[in-house]
Inverse folding.
């Protein structure tokens, strides 16, 4: 195969598609993996890529969504084809028949799903070759490349905790292979958290059951992981100035602003201050807030489309740590990690605990790593160290690993080419990827 | 007699049963509250609020076809065109996207030998401590009381009133 063909790296997540070219540091486009239909429109539209001016203008109020993925797995290849062809022709501007593809796939994908994915890649888009990677090994690859002398590279193993849109996986990786017999999964991810927050707000203040995108924004801006739940519950119960957690979110009115926003951004971060020492500061804050309040009073009375959040801010991400509170019969993240490690060879246990890597969008909640360490420490034997690393950009970690792999010299030889696919079929080609 | 039996067998097997695993558990339990809880958990994975895809497979009029042969033949002829549409509908249903749980059911992962890791074996399993914290469904603080009618939680008299007025028995029908 000629070396001039470019490699397209595609991290096809349930929530976001990260797409770009092998060898580059950042993906060229991050795109919601869905079609949406705003109230005013009769057609399903393609969402604009994130971080572009066009996406800031898009009015997503009450838009309904169609996603090609359900519970993290591809269920609607037709829809995925539509989204991909939009991505390839109008965003990346590539010619698939002259490029090869590195695609990520969730662990334990079903044979029927793999088959339809292969069909999509080779028969609908005519890529010259395909490599299917699993995300934990890519994260491991990226992290080892960042610290060539660290423990990670010496021991060649790590425990990747990927807390994404559809589910959460704790996967041990050893010498760039994911130990799939030891992987443990919690069926909770960002999507379920958003829906849970939607449910809470809808019952307690405003009906937002149709506002997927707005509540996503609320979750990203206001939710945090509590390190001390009873203390935060107490603070949330207080009234007036004492309540450091109360925060107001303004819903879009469709006239002056089409995006919702946090009313007092400084109010949102007050929980970071510890109750006692920040007393004076709080008073200062309150004065400022009071003034702002006066200024905004008229606005508040006119537009009633805002709501307050208090304990919802930390009780929503809390569910990843204790799914049982939601009524799920599943263990929380700390237990999940311990079970994943215990399923490995005992020689690996100390190294795995010392090289836990957090990735995925749902780990972006403030204090996620802190809380995890606090809960994990008592479960781990005393003589083992626990070290949790958060990726510098958890959304892109998998993609960067893929980009690295795509630019490695052996990449061409690892791929399955179109000719091989046509001769051997999907199932035989899949054996090459060892997972 | 025998023919009847074989007929009923055929009818049973020809009907595709597509039931999500959680729903199987829910249906197996006689308890309304468990059913409601499982349905709510399932709803957390929905893309849009409310009921999304109406099931295209609800088609029960095959059941009355073989009462007596004559009537059956006549009806079959008179309904010639309708048959076609039904087939078309079935084709359409096959094309329509299926949920992951249906695909999972079709993959028949239970038949794999026990040492092969699969989707089911990767699930983390039940929590090690059964202690569950309860939060008030009305205000979110820790709830010490359970509604005697529907089993939802609340923390105080005030919240109980709100609960009774707005959502008591809403999920447990």
């Amino acid at each position: 195969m000629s070396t001039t063909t470019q490699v397209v790296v595609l991290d096809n997540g349930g929530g976001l598609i990260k797409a770009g070219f092998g060898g580059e540091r950042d993906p060229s486009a991050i795109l919601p993996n869905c079609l949406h239909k705003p109230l005013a429109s009769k057609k399903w539209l393609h969402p604009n890529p994130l971080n572009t001016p066009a996406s800031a203008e898009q009015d997503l109020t009450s838009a309904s969504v169609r996603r090609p993925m359900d519970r993290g797995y591809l269920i609607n290849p037709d829809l995925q084809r539509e989204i991909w062809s939009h991505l390839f022709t109008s965003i990346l501007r590539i010619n698939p028949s002259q490029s090869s593809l590195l695609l990520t796939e969730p662990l334990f994908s079903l044979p029927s799903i793999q088959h339809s994915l292969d069909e999509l890649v080779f028969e609908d888009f005519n890529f010259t070759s395909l490599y299917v990677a699993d995300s934990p090994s890519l994260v491991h690859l990226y992290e080892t490349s960042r610290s060539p002398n660290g423990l990670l590279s010496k021991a060649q193993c790590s425990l990747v905790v990927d807390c994404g849109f559809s589910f959460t996986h704790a996967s041990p990786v050893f010498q760039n292979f994911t130990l799939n017999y030891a992987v443990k999964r919690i069926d909770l991810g960002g999507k379920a958290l958003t829906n849970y927050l939607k449910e809470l707000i809808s019952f307690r203040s405003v009906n937002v059951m149709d506002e997927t995108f707005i509540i996503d924004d609320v979750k990203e801006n206001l939710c945090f992981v509590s390190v001390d739940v009873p203390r935060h519950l107490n603070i949330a119960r207080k009234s007036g100035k004492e309540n450091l957690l109360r925060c107001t979110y303004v819903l879009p009115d469709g006239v002056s602003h089409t995006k919702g926003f946090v009313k007092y951004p400084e109010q949102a971060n007050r929980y970071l201050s510890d109750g006692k020492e920040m007393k004076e500061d709080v008073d200062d804050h309150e004065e400022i807030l009071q003034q702002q309040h006066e200024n905004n009073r008229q606005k508040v009375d006119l537009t009633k489309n805002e709501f307050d959040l208090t304990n919802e801010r930390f009780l929503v991400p809390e569910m990843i740590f204790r799914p049982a509170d939601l009524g799920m019969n599943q263990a929380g993240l700390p237990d999940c990690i311990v079970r994943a490690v215990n399923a490995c060879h005992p020689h690996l246990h100390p190294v795995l605990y010392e090289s836990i890597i957090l990735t995925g969008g749902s780990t972006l909640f403030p204090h996620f790593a802190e809380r995890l360490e606090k809960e994990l420490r008592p479960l781990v034997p005393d003589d083992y160290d626990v070290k949790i690393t958060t990726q510098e950009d958890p959304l892109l970690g998998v993609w960067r690993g893929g980009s690295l792999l795509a630019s490695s010299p052996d990449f061409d030889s690892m791929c399955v080419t179109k000719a091989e696919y046509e001769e051997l079929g999907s199932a035989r080609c899949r054996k090459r990827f060892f997972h | 007699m025998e023919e009847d039996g074989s007929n009923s067998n055929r009818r049973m097997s020809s009907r595709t049963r597509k039931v999500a695993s959680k729903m199987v558990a829910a249906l197996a339990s006689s308890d309304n509250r468990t059913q409601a809880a499982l349905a709510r958990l399932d709803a957390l994975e929905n893309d849009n609020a409310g009921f999304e895809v109406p099931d295209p497979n609800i088609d029960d009029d095959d059941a009355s076809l073989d009462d007596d042969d004559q009537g059956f033949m006549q009806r079959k002829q008179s309904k010639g065109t309708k048959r076609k549409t039904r087939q078309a509908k079935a084709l359409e249903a096959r094309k329509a996207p299926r949920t992951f749980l249906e695909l999972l059911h079709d993959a028949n992962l239970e038949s794999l030998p026990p040492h092969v890791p699969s989707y089911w074996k990767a699930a983390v399993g039940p929590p090690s401590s059964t202690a569950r914290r309860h939060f008030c469904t009305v205000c979110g603080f820790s709830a010490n009381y359970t509604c005697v009618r529907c089993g939802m939680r609340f923390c105080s008299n005030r919240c109980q009133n709100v609960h009774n007025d707005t959502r008591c028995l809403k999920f447990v029908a």
User: Anything to note?
Assistant: The first strand of chain B starts at residue 145 and ends at 146. The beta strands of chain B are 145-146, 153-154.
